[in-house]
UniProtKB/TrEMBL annotation:
Belongs to the IMPACT family. This is IMPACT family member in pol 5'region. The lineage of its organism: Eukaryota, Viridiplantae, Streptophyta, Embryophyta, Tracheophyta. One of its GO terms (cellular component) is cytoplasm. InterPro entries: Impact, Impact_N, Impact_N_sf, Ribosomal_Su5_D2-typ_SF. Residues 1-24 are annotated as: Disordered. GO terms for biological process: regulation of translational initiation. Residues 1-21 have a biased composition (Low complexity). Residues 39-139 form the Impact N-terminal domain. It holds the Pfam family Impact_N. SUPFAM superfamilies: Ribosomal protein S5 domain 2-like (SSF54211).
Length: 220
């Protein structure tokens, strides 16, 4: 079975993301902050890792400052994304923040940019550069890690090939190995496990090359 994810948006216009890598994603490992003054307005960008949309709203509630002039934001969780201009002219705050997230290649992240107005208007172009710029700077040197997605796999294997199978599974560092003898077939067992997305094809090829007969693979 192949699972597909869909985009979601509510209070904003979504921007398609082109930086997701199938089978892996790059999240932040901790919250980061960047501050800059632009024409007497103070901009504070706060970025933090997310688990889902609910955690995005919790993060926003935690870091937003009700005393500020604007609390603009954007987040990305896989193919789900939202952004909000929070009173700035449409498209001048949330969308530039979203573009900064997309350009960074970071996933499952939210960036809130807080603005304290200093008395000088920046204009449409100035706002786009300010919000997008501080968001980009906030993410530029942020600590990240690479998380690989796991692919559930299973196969039916004769008892006499279990030794070969387990040797290969150990070599590919698979997880959650389970064995079921109730297959309804004589001398055949079902083995299920999870393997890194980018190693699934290599594992399948290694098993086919090292076993003397065909093995039926099941991918979910």
């Amino acid at each position: 079975m192949v699972a597909t994810s869909s985009s979601s948006s509510s209070s904003s216009t979504p921007t398609p993301s082109n930086n997701s890598t199938a089978g892996a994603f790059t999240p932040l490992t901790q919250r980061v902050t960047f501050e800059k003054e632009i024409k007497k307005s103070k901009f504070i960008a706060i970025a933090g890792p997310l688990f889902d949309e609910r955690s995005a709203m919790s993060f926003l509630s935690e870091v937003r400052d009700p005393r500020a002039t604007h609390n603009c934001w954007a987040y990305k969780v896989g193919d789900q994304f939202r952004s909000n201009d929070d009173g700035e002219p449409s498209g001048t705050a949330g969308k530039p923040i979203q573009s900064a997230i997309d350009s960074s290649g970071i996933d499952r992240v939210m960036v809130v940019v807080i603005r304290y107005f200093g008395g000088i208007k920046l204009g449409t172009g100035g706002l786009v550069r300010a919000y997008g710029g501080v968001a980009a700077e906030c993410l530029r040197n942020a600590p990240t890690c690479v998380v690989k997605s796991k692919v559930p796999m299973g196969l039916e294997v004769p008892y006499d090939l279990l030794g070969v199978l387990y040797h290969q599974l150990q070599s590919f560092q698979v997880e959650d190995i389970r064995q079921d003898y109730d297959t309804g077939k004589d001398n055949v067992t079902m083995v299920t496990f999870k393997v890194d997305f980018d190693r699934a094809q290599s594992l399948e090829e290694a098993l086919m090359a090292n076993c003397s007969r065909d093995i039926v693979f099941y991918k979910r």
